[in-house]
Fold this sequence. Notes:
little secondary structure, two-stranded parallel sheet, 4% strand, elongated
Amino acid sequence: MNYADSGNGGECVGMLSGTNNNNLIDDNVNACGLTDSVNGNIIAANPNLGTLTGAPAYFPLTPGRLAINAGDNATRASTDQRGVSRPQGGRCDIGAFEVGIVSLPLVVR
């Protein structure tokens, strides 16, 4: 998921060619011909990304976001932008950020 909100245009302009799946676009007017709920696309939904952080910079996904576990494992990259392996759950996340699984230690008393 690449995200840019200039406030004066769509996130995608024109028409896409080929098969395009598992995209999250919050602009239903300028979605390059993609249709909501077709091929895993999520259209007209705010991604509610976290604050820009890291080096290289990225917008993290925060808990409960639509992009989490909404990717396609068959077409995913093996790691996210930070080098975290994908998927970290049943399915990979949409975009350049993969939410990691938190493992809590088992304490036996």
